Amino acid sequence: MSTLRAFFKPKKARLEDENPEQEPEDIDLVDPFDPVDPVDLVDPVDLVDPVDLVDPVDLCVPVDPVDPVDLVDLVDLVDPFDPDDHVDPVDPVEPVDTIIEPDVRNVPIDHAECKADIADAVGKETFDDKDLERFLNCWTPTSQSELPTSRHGKSTRRLLISHVQDPIYKDWLCVSKKQSAVYCKPCVLFGSQAHAPGKGRGKGRGQKLTTLVTKPLIKFHDLKGKSGLLDSHMEKDFHLTSMNLMENYINVIEGKKEDIRNTINTSRAIQAECNRKALVSIVDTVLFHARQNIALRGNTGEVGVVNSTGDEPSTNDGNFRASLRMRIRAGDEALKKHCLSAPKTATLMSADIQNEIVNLVKTMVIERIVEKVRKAEFWTILADDTTDRSKKELTAICIRYLEQNENTGDYILREDPIAIVDLLDMIRMVLGLNDVGEDELVMSGVNIARVLVDVVEKLKLDLNLCIGQGYDGASNMSSERVGVAAEFKKRAPKAEFQHCMMHQMNLSAGSAIKDVFINKAHALIKKITQFFNRSAKRVEHLKTVIRRAEDSRISKDKLTSLCTTRFLERHKAVQVLRNLLPYVFDALTDMTSWSSPETRSGAFNLQCAIDKANFFVSLVMLENLTGLLLPLTTMIQDKQIDMSGCMEQTKLVKKQLADMKEPHHWKRMYEEVVLLGERMGVEIKVPGPRSRIAINQYTKTSDPEEHYHKVWVGAVGNVIQDMNARFGEEKQNVAALEQLIPAKAPEPDQSAEVTGKLVEHFEDFLDVGSILLEREVNRWLLHWQPLSKSDRPRTALSALNSAKLYPSVSHLLKYLATLPVSTAEPERTFSKVERTKTAIRATMTVNRTHIHKVGKPTRYLGGNLGRMRKFLASERKFLG
């Protein structure tokens, strides 16, 4: 851009128009950067604002009123406390932990891949920043074969590559691939301001723009020289002014120079600085709400500026405005001054401004995550859906990938949400249906897969690097023929489906209630907890009974309801009921004499059902079974566990379950049953002859311990059988990779066998031949031979940190570590939605961006919010 100044004529110049009949106008050319030249100074507003809009920071210029939505150009702002802010935008810093959705349809364009054609800009009078950025980086030919030609009689003339690459022409000469023609880039983009008919007396104004501007140059017989079209165009004043405008625009947008209007107008610069300081407080408040999952608005509308004294109004106008008033009371002078002086059309506090800030931060968070995913060698997709309070089908989409710590070089597993989308709206969009269509929106595997592919492709992630899919076991997700897994694999051929291990473990644990004993006890526990928790009076009476007993061993005084979706999460409810069972029985006894017929009959029926040996035995069985399996499901939800570690822990739990069927384990459990029976005053005995369970399901015996032992063995057997069906046979590719984990590695002399299996399953992932791979695997196995297996790493993630000198082994271990394990992260994302999408917000009609789409910006943008604010203020590309 340094050559642009060479094109300005220092003195008077004659204007030559394409129409020879028009007399040129002799006008002084004024340097717009020279504030000393008082003659015919070009309007500074027209020099830098390509879209002829009022800069929202300039609240002092009395120009046309503006739409409040357009009042804030966040990206054109700078950190008021950093004088060097114009030079280098802040690099994003390391993330910490969360969320969120973004609307992937608003993800910024990757301008390195977007090649706009300058012909698309011809005829447009105004451009926004996104359009200008696209056309300033439009398609450029790289070889002579791509350049246009023209016929002149029997001869052919062509535009030469030397013309395009010549330093004199390259900054403005632009080739249209669509039209096989040539245009002047600055005149097309900024010419409407440069000649501006009827807008003053500046050089080049009021002239008719033709060839190279509104009409293409398609004849290439006379280009250079005094009469050449290119050289003569360079001398035109409107071209020089357009070049000036383009240079100034690029310098301002890159932060290389101050806006020319600020240098000319000192008072405007002071006002802009005040506005920026106020905006820092406003952005910081929005980020505080995002970080703490606090909704922005309240029950009533948000109109006008907040009270500059910080006094609270008579009505609740929302959390955001209340937070601003708190900042004012705490001494935020910049915000207080803004509230005193800001006009009604530029308060910077409207819902639109809040939405814009949230969307900007959301975009930054997503870009930061996508940047990290692109650095990883593999990634997997995780998805889950739920219905929120406003009855929208939300789908959370997360990416699992490996990240290497830049300081230590160690690897950690990350599961980051990249989108929370309204599934039905997205299906309607990808299918091209309108909002009033009569067609049924089918949430089939094909349609959901299209949504997932659409989200991933808009983020420009490489589907060839996707090696796994993690969903629940619903038929539309897991079907091998028409499910999401099958359809998504058509676009990502290496993405193997993995049913969520946490869901599988819950389904296996639920098989225990196939036993009639335990099934009846489970249903009775649900009835008891519902009976008490449905009435505050009953809950209070149970607390009174517990206080009256003065038992210091009791820490809980309220029953816990059974979890409706997670069987193993019911362990706490079972445990609390067992500890409080004597007090529950006493409370039910008291309630049988209450005045309410419903309470009396319900209490009597429950009292009769509780007072039985079968219930005591089943209660103890459920407590021990869920207590054993619950820690495993908690471990599976950890982001740092990989498939190998999960399978190892599952095998250990199956072994524990098999041991618990042994008589010595049952003996300890039976002692607990007897002790509970003594506390309740009930004798533990074999069910009577009229019991269908005793007659048909188990062999008759007079010993209650032996009889209930058979019941326990049957229940545990059901769980083990289900776990074997779900976790028994590992996938062959996982089994082959596990031989690279040091704790499971064979002897070095078996390296050829290990290599054969790896080549069989992962030939497409390897960059070396089988011979080199075998040698590397052999060295890897020899590396761990001096250590005992108990001292070696037991997971792929822990082994990775020692595999830096073994590139192929490291590559395969990364594959194993990245495979999906559970969908816990998408479910955690829904929990954050519930915190802000309250019953009130679910009925809102105002279009508001939900704060959960941002999540915790500090996780992805670093803990220094000042640096993130600076990034927000200085990067034009995030302008929404």
Structure explained in plain terms:
The chain has 34 helices and 9 strands. It is of the alpha/beta class and 880 residues long. The longest helix is centred in the first third of the chain and has 26 residues, at 266-291. Helix 17 packs antiparallel against helix 20 (597-610), helix 19 (571-591) packs across helix 20 (597-610) and helix 22 (643-660) runs antiparallel to helix 25 (704-727).
Describe the structure using short key phrases:
two-stranded antiparallel sheet; alpha/beta; disordered C terminus; 880 residues; 7% strand; disordered N terminus; 47% helix; 9 strands
Give the overall pLDDT as a whole number: 78
Count of helical segments?
34
Distance between the termini: 27 Å
| β-sheet strand percentage | 5-15%
Q: Give the strand line-up of the largest sheet.
A: 7-6-5-8-9
Q: How many beta-strand elements?
A: 9
Using only C-alpha atoms, the radius of gyration works out to 36 Å
Question: Quick one: overall form?
Answer: globular
SSE class: alpha/beta
Unreliable residue runs: 1-114, 197-204, 692-696, 858-880
Q: Into which percent range does the helicity of residues fall?
A: 40-55%
Query: Biggest β-sheet: count, sense, barrel?
Result: 5 strands, mixed
